[in-house]
Amino acid sequence: xxxxxxxxxxxxxxxxxxxxxxxxxxxxxxxxxxxxxxxxxxxxxxxxxxxxxxxxxxxxxxxxxxxxxxxxxxxxxxxxxxxxxxxxxxxxxxxxxxxxxxxxxxxxxxxxxxxxxxxxxxxxxxxxxxxxxxxxxxxxxxxxxxxxxxxxxxxxxxxxxxxxxxxxxxxxxxxxxxxxxxxxxxxxxxxxxxxxxxxxxxxxxxxxxxxxxxxxxxxxxxxxxxxxxxxxxxxxxxxxxxxxxxxxxxxxxxxxxx
Length: 258
Description:
Number of domains: 2
Number of helices: 10
Mean pLDDT: 89
CATH topology of the largest domain: Beta-Lactamase
CATH superfamily of the largest domain: GAF domain
Strand content: 15-25%
CATH class of the largest domain: Alpha Beta
Radius of gyration: 20 Å
Low-confidence stretches: 1-6
Shape: globular
Structural class: alpha+beta
Distance between the termini: 51 Å
CATH architecture of the largest domain: 2-Layer Sandwich
C-alpha cells in the first residue's frame, strides 16, 4: 500500500510540474491544487520539493506566483537538442503543409506511451486547431497518435491497447484501434480522424521514417466544416507529400553526417 501511495504522490508531483506550459507559465499554489486535484497542503509540499530542486521558482515581483526554474529550462533545452536533426529536416515541410492546406500543421513523436508535439506551424484562420509545443496526448487519440501507435512492435501495441480499449465508449474509435485497422496504417503510411482530438475537428497524419523505421508523424487538422470530401483528399495528398519530403530530408541529413 505504501508503494502505491508513493507512486500516486509521484504522479501528482509530476502533474504539478507539467502544469507549467506556454499557455499558462505561472501558477498560484491554490490554482495548482485545484488543477491537480490535491489538498492545498499537498500542493505546498510539492512546490517546496520542486523549489528545492530548482525546477520552479517565484515569479519576479510576485512571490505568490510560481514559474519554471533554471533547472527545468535546462532540461527543456536538453530535450530539444535530442530532436534537433528531426526538427531541422522537417521544418520546411511542416510550413509547406500549413501553406498548402491553410490549416495548422503539427509534428509529433512518441514519448513513452504518449505522443508529444515537438513542432507546429499555425494556421492563419482565427478558428484553428491549437496544440501547444510540448503538449502531451494519449497515443490512441487522433491521427498522428495512431500513426505512432501502429508503428509500435506488436507485443507493445497489444499491451497498450489491453489497458485502453476497455475505457472507450465510442465504437468508431474502438474500430480504428483494431489490429487490422492499425496494420492498414502501417501498409499505407497515413490515416485520418473525425471528432477525436476535439468535437467537430477532422485531421490526417502520415508517417515520417528514417533508416530505423517510423520516427515521427506529420499532420494537419481543422474544423470539419472547412473539409468537404475534395478538401479532405487534397489535404491527405499534401500530408503524404510532406511526410515523404521530410523522410527524404531526414535520410539525406543522416547520410551527410555519417
